[in-house]
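REQUEST
  id: r-88c1
  op: predict_structure
  target: Defective in cullin neddylation protein
  payload:
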Amino acid sequence: MFKKNSVKQQFVDITGASSATASKFLDSNNYNLQRAVDAYFNSPSSKKSSAPVFDKALVAIFENYRDEDNESQIDINGTMQYLEDLEIEPEDPQSLTLAFFLHSPRMGVFSKSQFLKQWQQYGINSIDGMKKFLAQYHESLLYNEENFYEENSNLGYGKKEPVTFKKLYDFTFDFLMEVENQKLLDYQTAIDYWTLLLPLVVNTAVKDGSLQPDKRATVESRIEQWFEFVRNEYKRSFSKDSWSMFYLFFKDIIIKDPEKFTDYDEMAAWPSVMDEYFEYLRENELLEELV
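RESPONSE
  id: r-88c1
  status: 200
  body:
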């Protein structure tokens, strides 16, 4: 009974709901706190209710970092201090994971609404708790463990889907847009973030067995050749489609057979930049011929 009362209190603290409402949602979800909280926030009655009551300790954390001129966001200065307190370097991939988790609208900015909503739904209201959660969340993303879910309105009301590394990768493109209605990503910025992201894909592929360790160096050479091709031959910005499709090209063509690109099909619907890269490798005798 003590454990159930404790879980009920956590539900009340997170949602601001009444004790009776807490009992209703916890009973229907076998006292699984996360499922009950998700069910509550996705219920029609919750969406019609007044603004949620946020945990005071969580609000205090936000206030510690918020922009002095805009109380609804954390700006770049607050973000840098926040990262320092979380013991995350700006160039650490976990900083990108944090931006993804908090639905950052652009680099160096966190909105108050998403900051409070995201942390509260997991019952986290301390820097130490955030550190531990981010480590778990980041690892789950890397290895596509599907331990975390996010609502996707495109699937229908209240529907959720697992959070995956591909979603983090696709998020990165929009995150890097600097002005409203920007559609293209500068190629050097793209290279900078591929430098951050692609080694994570390689590490995961080695761990899950889709890439043999003795092929790792070849894949890493392909990454460098891609960068050289983009810098010296392509020299153009990337659309979101090209950015997104390169992840699939990297996983399905390069990692699968880094020496010959066996599954590459010139008639497939790859963006033209990937076809040009293939031709670049072949013309420079950097790709083994298929027998």
